[in-house]
Amino acid sequence: MRLNASVPPFSPPRRPTVGLALAAVLVLVAGLLLAWPDRAGAASDPLISRDRPATASSSESSSLGPQNAVDGSATTRWASAEGKDPQWIQVDLGATADVTGVALTWEAAYARAYRVEISADGATWTRLAAETAGNGGADDWTGLSGKGRYVRVYATARGTSYGYSLYDFAVYGTLGGTTPPTGAFTVVAAGDIAARCTASDSACAHPKTAALAQKINPRFYLTMGDNQYDDARIADFRAYYDKTWGAFKAKTHPVPGNHETYDPAGTLSGYKAYFGAIAYPQGKSYYSYDEGNWHFIALDSNSFDQTAQIDWLKSDLARNSKGCIAAYWHHPLYSSGGHGNDPVSKPVWKILYDAKADLVLNGHDHHYERFAPQNPDGKATADGIVEIVGGMGGAEPYPIEQVQPNSQKRISGQYGVLKLDLNDSGYTWSYVGTDGQVKDSAPNYTCH
């Protein structure tokens, strides 16, 4: 907060000595600090928000996104849409934290009134601090006491006619009783994406999931098949997918679904023409890559019956040196949706399970679902694989039909994306709806 003193009327000068002037200034500063004891000084606990995933109610432009407020740079900033109240920005700390301080550095477009809030799930919020007469500059909230994974600034009254803008949104405290995990990064994932519709149709969902995915600004994106409906022709890819999710195609690692096989020009023809080497980095429709301590395996479940892919998978896993393994493809082994369980991937599960893989991501059924760790036979076990169905990228939702054993959470009818938070030794995730709200938060898992 800027602490402003009023200027008295001019009077003939009576110059005090330097010592008296300095004493007067010190008394004034001491009085101001006593008046705002919870705003004085710097936070002593570690910074736990740097480069963590950030979301916001709006952004003035793609270059003024919420990630700019947590990147530690004094020259980048988040700016909301102009002239609208309320607005908010929130940061996902990746795990439950004990929050003791929040520091805000406002641009000229500041908040006159706002709340600092904390949440365990991104849905229910508890107030940590409140400002009713802000005047911009730097606001340091110290001596806070709150426990949660998400922290947000909820602004209700603008100090200018513009929007809200922050150079820095810093959260201090302890994460899970320790310092933040190393090698942390975020991935956004979804399957079953581009229906043949555009943003001019208010019911069209993939422009909304694309906007959300871009706002999260992850390290990269991955897709779990059925990227383009109905027959995945190259013309449809260009007319629909490219107008939304295509905005970050260069940062996307896709796999094909069954709809990519329906192309009249040939199986996967439009898919290969659109993505090119992005989808075939190793010359095949399946491939692998590394990020941090993670090994990612992108598979083509349309050809799990071909020995070439199975042999490649075994060889790839034998060469892997990373401590955490995630694999993804289109058809899920287990699902409570309309398509149900698909045994085509059971042999692949067996190979991954024997290699101590951690996470499997699928689409095909158009809903969100997470399963407890289980083995290929569907028996819950601590050393099992966690499966997520994330088919809510934009295609028409499917209802939940027969709930499968070990299914822990199911959501149908609410479009969104998976926000995966990974580090050198573990992972968690949240399912974020197109309204920006977290619909489900997963436990924290440790890699096998």
Automatic annotation (TrEMBL):
Span list, region Disordered: 45-77
Protein name in the entry: F5/8 type C domain-containing protein
Keyword Signal annotated: yes
F5/8 type C domain span: 35-174
InterPro entries per UniProt: Calcineurin-like_PHP, FA58C, Galactose-bd-like_sf, Metallo-depent_PP-like, PAPs-like
Highest taxon, organism lineage: Bacteria
Sorted UniProt keywords: Signal
